[in-house]
Write a structure and sequence with these properties.
alpha/beta, binds pyridoxal-5'-phosphate, Aspartate Aminotransferase, domain 1, 372 residues, Aspartate Aminotransferase, domain 2, 2 domains
């Protein structure tokens, strides 16, 4: 029996190992371990790659989101709209900023927010939309930007799943006031450990973001505003710089594998493959999510076949126990709830071999043919 993990980090890092080890050696030699040349170079390279003015590395995607909300002055009583299928970090950021989350139904065609529900839920207290490009699929940006402009909502993008994804030739994460990226170990642009980055075109916001991550200390020992310790260290910056060089090629490979999967899996009536890109979008398939009402049985079957699977995410944000008391009302969001029960990630990464892809497909076909 084959063993195919959901993600193989060993393979993922193999080809940059020499470059990374040399970079790490240089860090040891220079002993510039924080705010050194690699952080500064990574920030410049990432900003250039995205086509934005400013990028600031930080310790992880969760702190990027929190610092984004704080830098925008979002606070108590402000409502932040967020799709219910996001990751818990999106809710944590709203909670710790002291704002109120307003959960949005999900559009299963994009995995982004349902735009009619968004318009319905905007109130005079609505301050921002926290938009998540789930699984690497760009949201419908023309409509979203128009709604935000019309209703005066600040747009913040969580592009943690979508490094390099494009909407009409523009990279996601660059449409809003701030774009946040996790660069944790399983992401498309990944460090070997926790890492994150925030981007903006706004000079004043850039000033805030730059210093929020270092205790608000614009000058050493002088905190100009309350801040955190949330830095991206030199070793992770070395790795991200090496990884960035191959990001586009790796994303292209992901799209190729996704296309092949989708061609084959579309033949199974009881299964829906993820959305296919219209010509104006380029998804980056951080996760390849299939949908079936037999999700749990299929997951068990694939595990027995040695195939790694993942649930992303089985409990929608509006059902997360730790936060229920803090919501202004209980939510019923049937699409988000159904997706949470039916979505399953199967292995998709650029280093997958063709025989592994075939084995995964054969196993899925076998499950449905045997009619479990
Ligand atoms: C959509 C999304 N946002 C934010 C985060 C948080 O990032 P981190 O783990 O780097 O804090 C994650 C992490 O998986 C994520 O998937």
């Amino acid at each position: 029996m084959k063993k195919i993990p959901l993600l193989d980090l060993r393979r993922n890092f193999e080809e940059i190992e020499d470059e990374v080890l040399k970079g790490i050696k240089d860090v040891f030699t220079s002993m510039k371990v924080l705010n050194g040349p690699n952080l500064q170079a990574f920030e410049k390279e990432w900003a250039e790659y995205l086509g934005v003015k400013y990028a600031f590395g930080c310790s992880c995607g969760t702190s990027a989101l929190l610092m984004a909300l704080i830098s925008l002055g979002i606070e108590k009583e402000d409502e932040v709209l967020v799709q219910a299928n996001g990751f818990i970090a999106d809710l944590e950021a709203i909670y710790f900023a002291g704002a109120k989350p307003v959960f949005l139904e999900v559009d299963p065609k994009t995995f982004g927010p349902d735009l009619e529900d968004l318009k319905r839920k905007i109130t005079p207290k609505s301050k921002a939309l926290l938009l998540i490009h789930m699984y690497g699929h760009p949201c419908e940006m023309d409509e979203i930007v128009e709604i935000c402009e019309k209703y005066g909502l600040i747009l913040i993008e969580d592009a943690s799943h979508a490094h390099g994804a494009e909407y009409k030739g523009k990279k996601v994460g660059t449409f809003g006031k701030i774009g946040c990226f996790s660069c944790g170990p399983v992401k498309n642009l990944n460090a070997i450990g926790d890492a994150g980055v925030m981007v903006t075109n706004d000079e004043k916001i850039a000033y805030k973001l730059k210093y929020l991550r270092v205790h608000g200390q614009v000058q050493k020992n002088y905190s100009y505003f309350p801040g955190f310790n949330s830095r991206l260290d030199e070793i992770q910056a070395v790795i991200l710089r090496a990884k960035l060089k191959t990001l586009d090629a790796k994303n292209e490979k992901r799209r190729e594998i996704a296309k092949y999967y989708t061609e084959k899996l579309s033949q199974i009536p009881e299964l829906s493959p993820p959305p296919i890109d219209p010509p104006y979008k380029k998804s980056v398939y951080h996760r390849y999510m299939i949908r079936t009402s037999k999700r749990d049985k299929l997951a068990e079957f694939l595990k027995k076949k040695g195939i790694g699977i993942g649930y992303y995410y089985p409990i929608p944000l509006h059902k997360q126990k730790a936060y229920l008391e803090f919501f202004s009302k209980p939510y019923e969001l049937p699409v988000a709830e159904k997706l949470a029960q039916e979505l399953l990630a199967i292995p998709l990464y650029p280093e997958l071999h063709q025989d592994e892809i075939e084995y995964i497909l054969e196993s899925i076909f076998e499950f449905f043919q045997k009619n479990y």
